[in-house]
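Aim 2 progress. For Transcriptional regulatory protein RcsB, the working sequence is reproduced below.
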Amino acid sequence: MQDPLRVVVADDHPVILFGAEHALLKFPGLQVVGCARQSTELVKMLQTAACDVLVTDLAMPGGQYGDGLQLIGYLRRNFPNLPIVVLTMLENAALLKRLSELGVTSVVNKSDDLSHIGLAVQYVSRNLEYMSPSVKASLDALRMNSGGKSDEVMLSRRELEVVRLFVSGMTIKEISEQLNRSIKTISTQKNTAMRKLGIDRDSELFQYAQSNGLLNLSSHARDNTGDVT
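Predicted structure tokens for this construct:
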């Protein structure tokens, strides 16, 4: 008889954590060996417990090792052979591209049925890619909109500047006054940035900024800011 896959689950929301664990237990070949609420607990668990697959929330602030892409990067460097399933509410093109570049081949949107978490674990354990339905739909739409091209998502320095100021809490009018550009120009640059990132709503822009560490950067740190892929 084959040994069960040992899974660690990490999420800062107790309801999601419980739901994910419960969903995984419905799969006979999976065993949840630990649950974590933030990155400090998660890393300690991975250092001490045998784990075959990690299922982790993307936005999970408060821990020593950060969250978002910072945490995923740390995990890939320190546990390079550990397959990771990422849980998120965000599915924009730039984020999915960055996760792929970090070696993450499975993303499950929390709005999809939680049974997809178990399916994702089974797939990544066999080195196969798995995207839940809404994530796959976003990727398909992206490919259709780009005509099959896979160009990098690139923001100009000015677009990135506007995004950083906007997610810091400033209004379009306040940004226009600070940067000495017209309101129409600022609005156009913000909308262009969102279109490039595959984002439709301001809430997704905030999530993207958090996941990419833009909320932690000064709006004056403008060196090498042409690329937020």
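The radius of gyration is 19 Å. This observation will guide construct design in the next reporting period.
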